[in-house]
Amino acid sequence: MDKQKKDVMDFVTEQSAKGKAITETLREIGIKRSTYYSWLNPDGKKKDDLPNTAMLTPEEKKAIEDAKEEHPLMRHRQIQGILRMKGLYLSYSSVYHHLRSMDKVEPYERRPSPLKEPRYNVWRKNLMWGCDWTKLLINHIRWYLIVIIDFFSRCIVSFGIYPSINASHVKHVYVTGLKNQGIYKNPSLPELRTDRGSPNTSWVTKEFFALMGADLSYARVRRPTDNALTERFFGTVKQEEIHVVGELSRRDLRPV
Q1: Residue 217 CB neighbour total at 10 angstroms
Q2: Model confidence, pTM
Q3: Cβ-based neighbour number of residue 250 at 10 Å
Q4: 3-state SS record for the chain
Q5: pLDDT digits (tens, 9 = 90+) for 65-92
Q6: pLDDT of 5-42, one tens digit each?
Q7: CA–CA distance, 44 with 108 (Å, rounded to integer)
Q8: In the chain, where are the structural domains located?
Q9: C-alpha to C-alpha distance for 242 and 58, rounded to whole angstroms
Q10: What per-residue confidence (pLDDT) applies to 251?
Q11: How far is CA 127 from CA 32, 106, 180, 209, in A?
């Protein structure tokens, strides 16, 4: 069996030296890539215990070096993409670590993370509200708790419990919040910050806010700070109430 392995590995090396991709050669002879690379690691060590470059064959290393020489300004992810187009499938980390071992990874300055910068600035109450909802289990039935919070006072101006969420529920909790705050006929209505869920982006919701003369703004994708107070509220409620109690009743959610 060891001789057969050696013959296969020698054949793959020979074909690779002729410019043929290792993956293509293995496919033709019916050998899995995982099996082939396990033969290159006879000690049985986990891949994480080995340097990334130790898993590369000399032909793969040369392919990386040639691609980098041909495209000196490209970074490791772009080099990996070029190799993949040629039929050579290597991980980003393998390409990166081999280039780094040759001191061919150019330093670059990372842009500051925007996650710490909320996209709003409030200086009084009822200037901007945040809206979101979460799932609840009440009497073994799934319900949704939707909440509107004032970004300045952090007061819950309105909430509702519904079996599902659609545009009518978003409209209802917003109007209820206006009535609770006594600003229903105020010419300057609070801006509502929401995520990009379908109830918020539907034309029904957009038309409603346009007719009301109120602004409807959306949080950026993967930017929880754009609706931070609402996200934090649900995190606290789940940690300190919902997950502690487990099973809720509608009485547990009544206003206090």
Answers
A1: 14
A2: 0.55
A3: 11
A4: CHHHHHHHHHHHHHHHHCCCCHHHHHHHHCCCHHHHHHHCCCCCCCHHHCCHHHHCCHHHHHHHHHHHHHCCCCCHHHHHHHHHHCCCCCCHHHHHHHHHHCCCCCCCCCCCCHHHCCCCCCCCCCCEEEEEEEEEEECCEEEEEEEEEECCCCCEEEEEEECCCCHHHHHHHHHHHHHHHCCCCCCCCCEEEECCCHHHHCHHHHHHHHHHCCCEEECCCCCHHHHHHHHHHHHHHHHHHHHHHCCECHHHHCCC
A5: 999 999 888 888 888 888 888 888 788 7
A6: 888 888 888 887 777 778 788 888 888 877 877 777 66
A7: 37
A8: 2-101, 128-253
A9: 57
A10: 59
A11: 61, 47, 15, 15
Q: How far apart are CA 214 and CA 191, in angstroms?
A: 6
Give the residue from 58, 59, 96 showing the smallest Cα distance to 77.
Answer: 96
Kindly give, in sequence order, each residue whose CB lies less than 8 Å from that of residue 58, ignoring residues fewer than 6 positions away.
Answer: none
User: In whole angstroms, what is the distance from residue 150 CA to residue 168 CA?
Assistant: 20
Q: Are strands 141-150 and 216-218 parallel, antiparallel or unpaired?
A: unpaired
* Residues composing the chain: 256
Do residues 174 and 128 touch, judged by C-beta distance below 8 A?
A: no
Number of other CB atoms surrounding residue 36 within 10 Å: 19
* Amino acid making up residue 197: G
Q: Describe the crossing of helices 58-70 and 76-85 by its angle, rounded to 10 degrees.
A: 110
CATH 3.30.420.10 fits 128-253, yes or no: yes
Per the DSSP assignment, residues forming a β-bridge with 136 are 143
